[in-house]
Amino acid sequence: MIVFDGPQGAGFMKGGHNDSTGNTRGCIQLRQRCVVVLANDVRAEAAFPRLVEFAIGKTGAPWRWEYGQMAFWAMP
Question: Which of 9, 26, 40, 69 is deepest in the core (most CB within 10 A)?
Fold first, then answer.
């Protein structure tokens, strides 16, 4: 679990994958909002930062820690 402090306050996130699927979850404690993304293809991981931002807003999650440079393919 990765704990961070972002623009909405404290939050936590964790992602994972195997050879064919990818997933992530992220939560903002103060707002008590979470999002879970499950994908049937690991190539979807590049879209996770934008999907989470769309669902619960800018979190300040350290996506690079979990997904490296790949996480920024989907970012502007």
Answer: 26
Q: Is the pLDDT of residue 29 over 90?
A: yes
* Full-model pTM: 0.81
What's the token pair of residue 46? 């590049």
Cα separation, 36 vs 26, in Å, equals 7
Buried b (16+ CB within 10 A) or exposed e, 34-72: bbebebeeeebbbbbbebbbeebeebebebeebbeebbe
Beta partners for 2? 13
What is the residue extent of each domain of the chain?
Answer: 2-67
| Residue 28: how many other CB atoms lie within 10 Å | 22
